[in-house]
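can u do me a favor
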């Protein structure tokens, strides 16, 4: 059985206190109400980095330079109707203050507390890796 592969990128924004930014999905979207690392779908002709820079500007209103995006790990998860491939980048420098332009809310969370927030299944394996990094 084959299912389509969807490529999305995500970012763990890390502040000066070592906290990670998570964003709450709007209720009307798939997996609404769950918390996720900001990011989104890679459009045709886009590199993952260009996509992430665009998504962070759209979703959070911040400007990120490609040099500040460090590839960290990835998630590969089979959902019922598609397979998600999601590279996760780490970013510690950006311009502007993150605000919820497309999400219901944003939270800065200590890595040890990330598992307390309900997240989509694809995001869950990333939590222990971030805890180990930070």
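np, heres the sequence
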């Amino acid at each position: 059985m084959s299912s389509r592969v969807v490529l999305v990128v995500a970012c763990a924004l890390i502040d000066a206190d070592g906290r990670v930014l998570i964003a709450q999905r709007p209720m009307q979207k798939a997996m609404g109400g769950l918390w996720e690392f900001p990011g989104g779908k890679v459009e045709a002709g886009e590199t993952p980095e260009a996509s992430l820079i665009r998504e962070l500007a759209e979703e959070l209103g911040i400007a990120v330079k490609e040099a500040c995006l460090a590839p960290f790990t990835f998630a590969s998860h089979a959902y019922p109707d598609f397979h998600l491939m999601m590279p996760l980048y780490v970013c510690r420098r950006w311009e502007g203050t993150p605000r919820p332009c497309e999400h219901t809310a944003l939270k800065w969370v200590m890595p040890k507390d990330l598992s307390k927030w309900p997240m989509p299944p694809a995001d869950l394996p990333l939590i222990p890796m971030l805890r180990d990094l930070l």
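The beta strands are 5-13, 20-24, 35-36, 39-41, 69-78, 83-91, 105-109. hope that helps!!
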